[in-house]
Write a structure and sequence with these properties.
- The structure is a homodimer.
- The first copy, chain A, is built from 19 helices and ten strands.
- By secondary structure, chain A is of the alpha/beta class.
- Chain A folds into two domains: 212 residues, Glucose-6-phosphate isomerase like protein, domain 1 (Rossmann fold, 3-Layer(aba) Sandwich); 180 residues, Rossmann fold (3-Layer(aba) Sandwich), CATH 3.40.50.10490.
- The first copy, chain A, has a five-stranded mixed sheet with strand order 1-10-9-7-8, sandwiched between helices.
- In chain A, helix 14 packs parallel to helix 17.
- Chain A is globular and about 60 Å long.
Chain lengths: 445, 445
């Protein structure tokens, strides 16, 4: 099979092969912890075999449900936050025409519940007026504030526009198998539902119905996505010196130990912007704890060569880069010749735009390595479902390994609760009376 | 006047007032260097008095030109990279309806030349087929690779679609007053032009025609934008303990000296996403040099509380936050009551969505300060032109001061040349023969 590849040659000016190989033992141990379920957070390992264990019928059911929404809706709003937003958003953006929104292609997949923007919600609801729209609501509990607010508002609007019975046909809920507010509501209203497994955490859920349904609604081939993920599940299943998930996990930890505190995920294709956002959640939330962890950042090049490029080239030498390089583009554009040649571009006339882009990438890599920025490169054959499936599983597997090498629980997120607790206290949520009193005493302005 | 405000109270757990006040002398010195032109990079200080020195006739000319494009085009493509892209993009996104692209409102302002994405250009050119479109091309030299490629392609397409004479009426060039390829072409073809002053660098150019024309084409009030900037020019002109540009510059440098290496610009309104991108260029490119400088990052909350939130709360304690808080929203959405209340939201029924958002913000601030993340807050009365003008000038002025406090040249970007030189060598650009030979010897794969 064509497959993604990982090249770590260009970190070797900053750390040695021995620095990386020294992590072999902990890497073996990490893989064992993952597969035996003997490590921290072992109640959240359901993502490990999602590609191999998801029944064909479930995929078929998702496709049928998606096609039903596609047939009946101009717009489908996917409601979710964190992992219930970023995975689908990342894959859809990577596969979509950049100007799809302007073209009016349907169904449009829009997102809500990923923020508490009053103008965002107003403008969304205003846009949906008179539109045939449906909702995919994603929440394990059904009570997470952001998606719950969005769903309450949009459900009310949909029912007002088409009546309760028709609305129920256009709402799909992805939630806990048995418990929670959304499960109860879905049962009462007769919504089509899919299950979020107890042992699959949000940031590892893109290969479950959470990510797959919105991706299928957008018209993409989730079978190919899952096939790619399955190929990578197999390729990274056991310890080996060629296991690219281990290679990436070991190398980034070796760099971190050598004082490289920030990892910048770099793309040269703007369609990968949200893939980087997904990656930031995956790694930031898995590793940023116990006052440690690499700080994940991202840039879209060559755009950001004219922005963060200066810092990366000449700022503090505490960073490394991981470049995602897309080998083949979907389309071809050749730079035309121009008689006057005032802009001086005739030396590249006849070349494809991507050839220039690849030279920008290579030139940047050389400049950064020369400037003290170690550089890993992940090549993906093309922005197609199967390769994105490979890339997703690769990063997930590497993240589990990396978190254990760092010696944290990669599968919890205790820090996310802190703002929620304060917010509930400030909003005087029932059950938070004590916290409300305490926080009021704290506010001095 | 209503004005933006800066609150630094919540950094005082990490650094003391004395730490900040110790920078008074260098801050006074920095302001003097800016206003006397006695510091490094003093040939690029033209941005300092852009609001006060830009003639009314120039603004009127920009508005007239914009209205002409608006009347004659369904789509206007702004071609530029770095500062010739981010400023306009930031202001337009901050002021636009989130779903404007889906609504088909015209003229649509699209961007090109800010990347070398082959698919991006293909899809743009495909979208423009048969459309009435115009071009604003922004480049001091006219030979910067990214915008030059985009302009060569789109100019050819426009001329093919409407003929050379009509195309010339729909192309506006913003370029050097006398020199360069684009100036020469504009003269030959008879394009309408505006001037980029020699002493205004890219990342400080949003309040010049570079930013103002695309913003006006998008339909926004550039006079109000400039008025806000002028108010801030006056408010930050001289040293004072109340000068908010100095307060921000001193505080972030005091934090940096105390080991806070990463500044995260935080918003709670997704419309500010690209404002953060503009800010990252401004600060990253101005300060990231000589192996020093704060690493600028950004998050969109509450979205990213479910992503980077964990790292920020519990990762390495080497970060601080600067929150941009928008006081008034444009629209009102009230959370409805629900009889069943399965989602448990009735305790906030009747509240505006923004009240909840503000409590998420406050709750997060308290959690982060408790967790060891110093927090500055900039409040902006609303996302309106005049306040954005204030905010832009504020950040520019503070950046000049901050760069001098850091003891770098805030107005050059030597590191940006490195990748370009390599790229030209790899592409065998005439004049780079020696570099081509040298770089070929370096490539071992």
């Amino acid at each position: 099979m064509k497959a993604i590849k990982v090249n770590i040659k260009n970190v070797l000016g900053s750390i040695s092969e021995a620095d990386i190989n020294n992590l072999d033992a902990v890497s073996v141990d990490a893989i064992e912890k993952l597969h035996k379920g003997s490590g921290l957070g072992n109640d959240f390992l359901g993502w490990l075999d999602l590609p191999s264990r998801t029944p064909t019928q479930e995929i078929d059911d998702i496709v049928t449900t998606a096609n039903n929404l596609r047939a009946n809706c101009e717009v489908v709003v996917a409601i979710g936050i964190g992992g219930s937003y970023l995975g689908a958003k990342a894959v859809i953006e990577a596969l979509s025409d950049t100007f799809a929104a302007y073209r009016g292609s349907t169904p449009q997949v829009l997102f809500a519940g990923q923020n508490i923007g009053e103008d965002y919600l107003y403008e969304l609801m205003d846009y949906l007026k008179g539109k045939k729209f449906g909702i995919v609501v994603i929440s394990k509990s059904g009570t997470t504030t952001e998606p719950a607010i969005a769903f309450r508002l949009l459900k009310e609007q949909l029912e007002a526009q088409v009546g309760k019975a028709e609305a129920a046909k256009r709402i799909v809920a992805i939630t806990d198998a048995k418990r929670g507010a959304l499960r109860q509501l879905a049962t009462e209203e007769g919504y089509k539902t899919f299950v979020i497994d107890d042992n699959v955490g949000g940031r590892f859920s893109v290969l479950s119905p959470v990510g797959l349904l919105p991706i299928a609604v957008a018209g993409y081939d989730i079978k190919a996505l899952m096939q790619g993920a399955l190929d990578m599940e197999k390729a990274t299943a056991t310890h080996s010196v060629d296991n690219i998930a281990e290679i990436y996990a070991k190398t980034r930890n070796a760099l971190y130990r050598a004082g490289k505190k920030i990892e910048i995920l770099v793309n040269y294709n703007p369609k990968l912007h949200f893939f980087a956002e997904w990656w930031k959640q995956l790694y930031g939330e898995s590793e940023g704890k116990d006052h440690k962890g690499i700080f994940p950042a991202s840039v879209d090049n060559s755009t950001d060569l004219h922005s963060m490029g200066q810092w990366i080239q000449d700022g503090e030498r505490t960073i490394f880069e991981t470049v995602i390089s897309v080998e083949e583009q979907q389309h071809e554009v050749v730079i035309p010749s121009d008689e006057a040649n005032l802009d001086g571009l005739n030396y590249i006339a006849g070349k494809r735009v991507d050839e220039v882009n690849k030279m920008a990438e290579l030139g940047t890599r050389i400049a950064h390595v020369d400037g003290g920025v170690p550089n890993m490169r992940i090549t993906i054959p093309a922005l197609k479902e199967e390769y994105l499936g490979q890339l997703i599983y690769f990063f997930e597997k590497a993240c589990g390994i990396s978190g254990y090498i760092l010696d944290v629980n990669p599968f919890n997120q205790p820090g996310v609760e802190d703002y929620k607790r304060n917010m509930f206290a400030l909003l005087a949520k029932p059950g938070y009376e004590k916290e409300t009193e305490a926080i009021k005493a704290k506010i001095t302005e």
